[in-house]
Specification:
Distance between the termini: 16 Å
Number of strands: 2
Oligomer: single chain
Mean pLDDT: 87
Strand content: 5-15%
Length: 120
């Protein structure tokens, strides 16, 4: 049920975005930044379930791919803190994620109904 939905969404994503952006962590970071706007890396850690070091490596990859950018010194009183922002390429990826999920809305609805039935 959920595994099939996950595979279906991943397969659909692979048709429209580069393979390095089809992972769950990448999708979570990109869509969260699209919805919330700028975020500190420390606020991304709990969203992904990754360690701070893992998030740093993920952000490094996304920055190298020009999906995000980090801005340092934007918080007064603490020049060490960075804020992570989506680039136009990042916003385009967020749009593609939303488009894929919406194209599978019936599958998502069915999976939700099955979960409700299991919960009793």
């Amino acid at each position: 049920m959920l595994t099939g939905l996950g595979r279906s969404l991943t397969a659909a994503l692979e048709e429209c975005v580069e393979p390095e952006f089809t992972g769950n962590a990448e999708a979570i970071v990109i869509t969260s930044l699209d919805v919330r706007g700028q975020m500190r890396p420390v606020d991304i850690v709990p969203l992904t379930g990754m360690t701070s070091g893992g998030v740093t490596k993920l952000l490094d990859r996304l920055e190298k791919a020009e999906v995000i950018r980090r801005e340092y010194g934007t918080i007064s009183g603490d020049r060490r803190v960075s804020l992570v922002t989506l680039t136009p390429k990042g916003h385009q990826l967020a749009y593609e994620y939303a488009r894929v999920v919406l194209s599978r809305v019936d599958d998502v609805r069915e999976a939700g109904a099955q979960l409700r039935d299991l919960a009793g």
